[in-house]
């Protein structure tokens, strides 16, 4: 069995810490067994490793999140989506990758799950049972449903067929009758009385099921061809495109701990501390959390049931029960990410100006981890000036090599090939000037330092 973890999302519900590049699963606000902060995706991958499933797992993500995945998980297998669409295109692309790149047999089972569930280890043991469920029932799809603890209005429900309960080696299984999306509280209670389960977004199927569907719809089944036609795939959820049309679906209940940490009120319930970052919360403030990513202190005085979150992207002060509405508040607000993690380190935007004539100036503080490098690249619409603040490194400009130290200034003209590598942790200020200060203006030539050195004139 192969597992595919879907990593997407627009980063709105946990604004201002999350953005289009750093979605909620990358926020380091949970605590691992070593008492260090970890993100949701790091927690999930650690749990997969503990139950022996990480070696057969892949992460499906868009280009914008690929470097964040590499930064937090290292060299895990990544299936890259050309653009963000929806869960059906993402799963279809992953299926073609497993089929044509990995060489997976059509008779093997694929399990799809979100990258950010907050669960205990038993959940992943339950996932390990899905292969046997598919093999034994011959179902098109096998799902995991969470036994509800209250009549929630924000979750979808899986409604089983009456008297369809069976067991396969102590694994409880029901045939699925239908699905109900986000019912009222009263309707949710009725569904629970009928043994309905929360839909936690876990699907298992034989690879042949999706590959055959793609062939029927006239889509390619080779990964490279599918990636080129990715924008032609229906921008639909997997539930709408596949699940609702399947003839034979089964579900196995999960009774352990499960929670969707998709909003500030649910996330803070699982945090081990009420404060991260500089600041003070007054003793008279009850059930209040402060998460501060800025270098200035934030003081919260006399506020109960409140979340205060600050980052270079903005400042949020919200009553906890109101926090799920933040996505609607931000739907018309467009802003470039002001902080990003990359495979080589991170950067923070210090200042950005766009002038009437189209001229732009962007200032970043970049932290490059020891023995890491940025790609050998060039830009067509901007120049860059870098000033080294701390650490030592190596710099290549148009195949010319030099070492750099604090106080050095590097001038990178438009079209110049360049890269920098940190010998020790390296910090520098980068000022970009041009007409298009985006990642689309980066032409990457080589990624690995060994490849870059082959270009150097010694």
Automatic annotation (TrEMBL):
Q: Outline the extent of the Nucleotidyl transferase domain.
A: 4-272
The GO biological-process annotations, alphabetized, read as: GDP-mannose biosynthetic process; polysaccharide metabolic process
One annotated GO molecular function is: isomerase activity
Instruction: Report the transmembrane regions from the record.
Output: none
Keyword tRNA-binding attached: no
InterPro entries registered for this protein in UniProt: Man6P_isomerase-2_C, Mannose-6P_isomerase_type2, NTP_transferase_dom, Nucleotide-diphossugar_trans, RmlC-like_jellyroll, RmlC_Cupin_sf
Q: Does the keyword Zinc apply?
A: no
Keywords from the named record? Isomerase, Nucleotidyltransferase, Transferase
Name it.
Mannose-1-phosphate guanylyltransferase (GDP) /mannose-6-phosphate isomerase, type 2
Source organism of the structure? Paenibacillus tianmuensis
């Amino acid at each position: 069995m192969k597992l595919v973890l879907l990593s997407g999302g627009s980063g709105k519900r946990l604004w201002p810490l999350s953005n289009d590049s750093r979605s909620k699963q990358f926020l380091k606000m949970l605590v691992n067994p070593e008492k260090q902060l970890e993100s949701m995706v790091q927690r999930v991958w650690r749990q997969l490793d503990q139950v022996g499933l990480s070696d057969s797992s892949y992460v499906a993500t868009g280009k914008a999140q690929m470097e964040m995945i590499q930064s937090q998980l290292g060299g895990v297998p990544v299936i890259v989506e050309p653009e963000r669409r929806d869960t059906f295109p993402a799963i279809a692309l992953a299926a073609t990758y497993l089929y044509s790149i990995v060489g997976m047999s059509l008779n093997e089972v694929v399990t799809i799950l979100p990258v950010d569930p907050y669960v205990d280890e038993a959940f992943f043991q339950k996932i390990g049972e899905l292969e046997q469920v598919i093999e034994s029932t011959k179902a098109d799809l096998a799902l995991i449903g969470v036994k509800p603890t209250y009549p929630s209005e924000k979750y979808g429900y899986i409604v089983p067929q009456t008297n369809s309960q069976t067991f396969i080696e102590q694994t409880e299984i029901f045939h699925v009758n239908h699905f109900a999306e986000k019912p009222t509280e009263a309707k949710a209670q009725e569904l629970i009385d009928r043994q309905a389960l929360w839909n936690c977004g876990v699907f298992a199927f034989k690879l042949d099921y999706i590959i055959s569907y793609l062939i029927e719809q006239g889509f390619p089944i080779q990964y490279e061809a599918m990636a080129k036609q990715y924008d032609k795939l229906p921008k639909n959820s997997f539930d709408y495109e596949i699940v609702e049309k399947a003839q034979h679906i089964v579900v196995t209940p999960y009774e352990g701990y499960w929670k969707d940490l998709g909003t500030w009120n649910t996330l803070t319930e699982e945090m081990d501390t009420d404060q991260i970052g500089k600041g003070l919360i007054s003793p008279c403030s009850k059930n209040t959390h402060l998460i501060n990513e800025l270098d200035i202190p934030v003081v919260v005085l006399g506020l109960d049931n409140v979340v205060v979150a600050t980052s270079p992207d903005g400042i949020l002060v919200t009553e906890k029960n109101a926090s799920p509405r933040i996505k609607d508040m931000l739907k018309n607000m467009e802003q470039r990410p002001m902080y990003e993690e990359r495979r080589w380190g991170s950067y923070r935007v210090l200042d950005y100006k766009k002038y009437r004539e189209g001229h732009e100036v962007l200032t970043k503080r970049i932290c490059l981890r020891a023995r890491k490098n940025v790609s050998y690249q060039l830009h067509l619409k901007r120049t860059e000036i870098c000033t080294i603040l701390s650490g030592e490194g190596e710099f290549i400009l148009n195949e010319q090599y030099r070492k750099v130290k604090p106080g050095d200034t590097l001038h990178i003209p438009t079209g110049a090939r360049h890269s920098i590598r940190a010998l020790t942790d390296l910090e520098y200020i980068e000022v970009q000037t041009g007409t298009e200060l985006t990642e689309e203006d980066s032409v990457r030539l080589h990624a690995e330092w060994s490849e870059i050195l082959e270009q150097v004139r010694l």
